Amino acid sequence: MKSNSETYNKFMLWAEDCPKVDVVIITSSRANPYTKTDILSDYDIELYVNDFTYFRNDDNWNEKFGDVIIKWPLNPESTFDKNRITRLVQYKNFERIDFQISMSTNINPIDLDNGYKVLIDKINATSKLQKPSYQNHIIRKPSEKEYIETINSFFWNSTYVAKALKRDEIYFAKYMLDYDIRFHSLQKMIEWFIGFHNEWSLTTNKFGRLFKNYLDDNMWSELEKTYAGARADENWIALENVISFFRNIATLIGEKLGYTYPEHIDQNVCEYNQEIKNLSKL
Asked: A Pfam family matched by this chain, by name (predicted)?
């Protein structure tokens, strides 16, 4: 796989010559024909090696490919799988290579299903790998139970926002509004809405990165209104807006899937939140 990236090409030359490296596979967006990339897109590299200890103890090898700004984690270590070492490296020229380092005996086809290309195979370890289905991160249709539970969680957590705003606890209010509610409940509902209208055939990437590509201008404008600054009054409006947006999109997707929107939960909680807002003192 040729590239205009000087950093990537230096890495490939090093990998070809390094006796500790057996297999190099590129995965994710740069190996997925259905995904758009740009100069800021990572190179996700699965590096299969015959000397795991070397890569755990030596962290200078990735500095041969360009000027390094920062690495994550701070030192070579396993982050989500004890059989892998993670080295995410950001280079000064905007290029980033995310290395996942494993022993050559640990090639797992499941890790490759979202797209892969074999770049180097010195030991014929990849000849029996199946073609990727690109289905790993496709939005899945929710069950009615998951749909109702997501709505219940959304409204339950909205009460934390109301209480925090009334107490002038803006830091906690923003956490609940802009993290918990937004990324645990609202994100799911938007994904299901987009998934339904695209026949459950796509992904919107992590944390709604591609939402803007699939929501119409009016819906996107309404979503923008759910954001606010640091003032309490702004966040009361944002809370009302996010509830309104969530209600509309949850009702729509419920109708499409044949699920009943729990209006009693919505009404009870909205009345409760308004009563908190109207309290003269605590």
From this structure: Adenyl_transf
Topology of the domain comprising 144-278: Four Helix Bundle (Hemerythrin (Met), subunit A) (1.20.120)
Distance of CA 243 to the CA centre of its chain: 23
The tokens describing 204, both together, are 């919107």
Architecture of the domain defined by 6-121: 2-Layer Sandwich (3.30)
Grouping H, G, I as helix, E, B as strand and the rest as coil, residue 131 is coil
Q: pLDDT per residue over 102-127, tens digit each? A: 999 888 887 788 889 999 999 999 99
For residues 191-209, average pLDDT: 93
The token duo for 94 is 């905007």
132, 112 in Cβ contact below 8 A? yes
Which pLDDT score is estimated for 163? Answer: 98
Say if residues 51 and 34 touch (Cβ distance below 8 Å). no
Domain ranges across the chain = 6-121, 144-278
